[in-house]
Amino acid sequence: MIYLFIKILHIFSVFIYGGFLFTDNLILMKMQKTLSKEKYDEVRAYFKEFTRVLVPKALVVAVITGVLLFHNSFGSVSEDGLSNFQIVLSIKAILGLWLGLRGILQVFFGIQPFFFKSHKLPFILVIIIIFLSQIMFNI
Ligand code: HEM
Asked: Torsion angle, CA of 90/91/97/99, rounded to 10 degrees?
């Protein structure tokens, strides 16, 4: 029951974070092409102001619940080494932790990322992570 609750929290927080990246990358990018620079800057400022309240917290929740799920799902390593599930889950977890660390350092500590300063790469990473999270159970 607790596992289910944590998993639902994980999925919802990831949904908020992924939704933010989707809007930022696809919807706002489209607006940038049609709106004047002043109008676009104004829209972007509002978007930033309102998403700032929720999105960084959702990312923190995604990382914490992810670590808890990992603890529960990874299982023990057999004598033959890591299973395919454990390998893919580890890759997914590393990518998720990297995203989480980068976001937390940037928003809560004002440390700008060394790589991918825009939101394009986090968006691509989230798509990869979601893909990995689905195939890891079936390989
Ligand atoms: C923003 C980054 C992340 C995204 C987009 C993401 C996305 C997802 C998604 C979509 C699922 C599939 C849920 C399902 O189909 O039932 C999932 C499951 C899972 N995630 Fe994440 N996740 C992220 C971060 C993390 C982190 C940092 C960890 C661990 C350190 C983690 C560990 C897990 C585990 C262990 C599961 C499998 C739970 C199970 O046993 O069913 N995730 N994640």
From this structure: -170
| Domain definitions of the chain by residue range | 2-135
Token duo for residue 22: 């989707």
- State the pTM of this model: 0.90
Atom of ligand 1 nearest to the CA of 100: 1
- The single residue listed with the structure tokens 């289910």 is 4
Measuring from atom 37 of ligand 1, which residue has the nearest CA? 69
Query: By C-alpha distance, which of 75, 55, 32 is closest to 122?
Result: 55
Cα 25 to ligand 1 centre (Å) = 22
Count Cβ atoms within 10 A of the Cβ of residue 14 and give its class: 0-12 exposed, 13-18 middle, 19 or more buried. buried
Candidates 133, 134, 138: which one to mutate for ligand 1, based on the most atoms within 8 Å of Cβ? 133
Say yes or no to pLDDT of 9 above 80: yes
Question: What's the Rg (C-alpha) of the chain?
Answer: 17
